[in-house]
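Study this protein:
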Amino acid sequence: MQKPSIPKGTRDFSPEETAKRNYIFNTIREVYHLYGYQQIETPAMENLTTLTGKYGEEGDKLLFRILNSGDCFDGITDAELQERNPLRFAAKACEKGLRYDLTVPFARYVVQHRNEICFPFKRYQIQPVWRADRPQKGRYREFYQCDADVIGSDSLMNEVELIQIMNEVFSRLGIRVNIKMNNRKILSGIAEIIGEAGKIVDITVAIDKLDKIGPENVNAELRAKGLPEQAIGRLQPIIGLSGTNREKTEKLKRILAASETALKGVAELEFILDRIEAAGLQASLDLDLTLARGLSYYTGAIFEVKALDVAIGSITGGGRYDNLTGVFGMDGISGVGISFGADRIFDVLNQLNLYPAGSLQTTQVLFVNFGEKEEAFLLPLLARLRAAGIRTELYPEAAKMKKQMSYADVRKIPFVALVGENEMAQGKINLKNMLSGEQLLIGPDELIARL
């Protein structure tokens, strides 16, 4: 008989792992609420017409398509089947797909519910997404995103707020991070200045990989995309820019003086830097011109967060998109958003062992079961402890003491309570600390106060 298994790039989560993930989700949720964001949810699957063409060519290839239920061959000719063209087959046999991110479904939601929404609309969403990617360390085919977006406001104060949210979340989680920032208008301006405005997507996709594959390979990729040597040469000093954020913006104003688009991007960055200096950050914030974020829908500021103490890809990213809802027939709605990569944050917290005591919500006290008489005596006491917010268990049957103590040990339950005939007569509880081995005879009130 075949052993059961799960698809590549997906994971099971044990009770302890789920508790750790909930700690992450709850931390992010609390910070979102602090800034006035409201939660929505959208379906796991969307119509493919909603998803295709929104993520660029690379993204479209990574969509999980769902075969039509019933006769998926309906409307497909024998000739088309013999042609064995997977894309053409999928176009007819699949009307739905699993969502690739939460931003496009959000844009669809906004257009569909525009008459009920109060703009600017600040929403957050914590749900899984699916990508038919090659699984590797830190990259999964099913993973959670924790998005926050503001839609219906052009103000750069939203970008400032999102930087503060990223800073606050990682400060609460105890992860030291570097927030990288750039602006797509600057990247468009660079493409203009080097005389290759039509190749903006090729340029951004390539330079976005700079920290992964190095400058030589990036240049090779640009050559393969048909960029002339002269243009590649003019690109080098721009992507190799050094200095403080302010020094970089000053240099950019000189280098990109001929591009109105680029200068607008620099001005936007300066506005954000001014406000962030006034607000103060724990995390470092760096202007990084190689940051391009591969997705084609960003139009303004773009962000990425790297953990400083663990080698892993970006753990948060996002940016400004001017007209995402336009593809659904609602023009002129600007939005900006970020997405926390919960699965990578989970890996970082595990590697650095940063979960605070008590964050995993395990049982605090286990009552040993001595038999039916004791069970009946304990029920009101258990109800009282739970009413006081104490996570309490009674072992379900009167098994041997060794078995019950072993259960408490494996479950990492810090206290075991023993209530036999003597304790019942005195109205007391014999409380054992499983770490120190110390035992105390105490009353219910003292037990509640202690826990």
In short: The longest helix spans residues 15-34. The first strand starts at residue 38 and ends at 39. The mean pLDDT is 91.
